[in-house]
Amino acid sequence: DAVVAVDQDQHVTYLNATAERQYGIMASAALGRSLNELWTTQWSSPQAHAAANAALRDTGSWRGESIHVKRNGDKIHVESSVIRLLDATGGDIGSLATIRDITERKRNENRLVEQSRLLDLTADAIFVRDVHHRITYWSQGAEAAYGFTREEAIGQVKHELLRTEFPMPMEQIMEQLYRDGRWVGELKHMRKDGSVVIDNTRWVLDRDALGQPASILETNTDVTERRRTEAALQASEEKYRSLIQSLPAAVYTCDCDGCIQLYNAAAVELWGREPEIGRDVWCGSWRLYRSDGSALDLKDCPMARTLSSGRPVRGEEVIIVRPDGTRRHVLPYPDPILDSEGRVTGGVNMLLDITDRKRTEMLLREAKDTAELASQSKDRFLAVLSHELRTPLTPVLLTVASLEHDTELKPEVREDLSMIKRNIELETKLIDDLLDLSRITSGKLSLVIEAVDLNEIVRQVCSICEPQLHEQSVFLDVELDEGAGMVAADSARLQQVLWNVVKNAIKFTPEKDTIHISTARRDDGYCEVRVIDRGIGIPPERLPHVFNAFEQGGTSITRQFGGLGLGLAICKALMDLHHGSIRAESAGAGQGSTFIIELPSRTMTTTARIRLAAPPKTAALPQLRLLFVEDHADTARILSRQLSKAGLVVVQAHDVAGAIELSERERFDLLVSDLGLPDGSGYEVMRHVRSAQNIPGIAMSGYGMEEDMRRSREAGFSEHLVKPIDLRELIAAIRRVAVRK
Fold this sequence. Notes:
alpha+beta; 6 domains; Beta-Lactamase; elongated; 32 strands; six-stranded antiparallel β-sheet; seven-stranded antiparallel β-sheet
């Protein structure tokens, strides 16, 4: 405290160090000066001033509060204790004042007064108790929190009223309160209705002017619901941790810096070691690679990008290098963890170990590559086989076709020639069936779907089968439903299916018997064609197998009627490609057979219909110079002779070099070239001739796959004919090309 002594004239005679600091003046400068030069006193009222003087005069002492205005104008609240100083005779020689600066305390008291006015506005329970814990103030928040009115609470011992449960001995709490001036903790209180409330409590110790404990301000915030929520959250977190641990996939969580916080056993197994919590980051590895093998910087890994963007990252493979050097292919699924305001606070990542899958995929790729290589080898073999089988047939077929109608030959010779022609056509059909079956099984057969008149297809097939019907002495009874209408189909392939079925019916039908063919549109949205014969029928045990390749109802049927049994298998595959069906019905051996072809009907806006091709024109060919390239000597000789008879000027070449030499020396109107040549291919000839003379070309080949025809078109050929060559087809193609030219 500041101590100041003055004489009877109010001049300073003593000033201690505290007074020097409090009033900003050294004792040496203050001694002898009037007290009013150190400060002036402001009283709360004139009466207070008079009372102080009276007390000094009458009792020799006074204790009270006032305001001192210092020399610099600052005001301080002080609590003063003044006594009169007397000499030995009892005479007045001055006074001694002990002065305490209570500015801060007054400010706090004023603040408490102001706060007490606001206390009732807060939802917290606020009350004041004395050092004996008797309640002296009880806020409206306390009334609401505990159910006791202010009248019921005032004067009560707080801990008895609320049956307080302490987390530690009361003595320890009070010791801390007296030492630190405050205590914060959590208490359990009982409401008036007997329910328990958990409070976050703050105690503040208030001291009086002498520094003695005077009262305790207690503020309680109800955290009961929060604690329940936290308990539920903790239980949920434990459940979450247990769930993570039980997951077979590696899972970990990290903070917003990527430091791993929680992980499961699967993650340890994947990483190959236990991570250091709060230190190891991202995928638990310092060495990461992309799926292509390039190094992946940690800051660019999926989890790092998720934390920086706040969005999940999907579909990126990562390679983790474990401590032992082994690599694991991983598919990460990082997701951000957001707070209530949408800020990223961390992340959770599930790492799927796809190493085995990648290994399997690699094996599958290798197997697929091997299968594709084998398929390509098979395709090449079939193409070469087709070429080698078809090429020798061309001169034979051309010779037979030219002699078949020669009236100078004996009838039996012409019959033999017809027999040879039929067998050549049969062998050609077998080659076609084998190639079709290969294309179907390898998925390389494509359809050209268009609007097809079902009845017109039936008419075309009937027309094609007329020679065979005449030869077998079998009749057709055709009943066409004019309402059958249009179907969406590949006309050539649909015709192939129906022709196979009708041809089989003719083959297995006795002489002078009749085959019934009908079309109909059904109520279920399908169109159907029925082919009914009264032939040898199908035994019940063979019926499920009639559409299998190389099956023809038994070996006896094969020996009697020939063939490989591919036709119906191809029909079944073609109808599947059309999203239609074909099925067989038979009452048994000798009871005939019924084949039903079904296609979804289509309502077409077009009126276009598939019609029979116009018969080839019989007019003479225009006078054309034709460059004919063929390495097969017999084919070259026979075909050149017959084309010359047709009015063409034919110039022959037998290889690529010869064809190019002729094209550079002579002018031509048209190129007809075999594709398989000894020193190259017909594609090379076509490209050279096209660039040199810009003339059209017709390709001839034993290669009849779609790929071969596509390559022909790309090389510049206008037509592609498959061997054995039919002279009428070749001449028709020459006419078409000549007209376009």
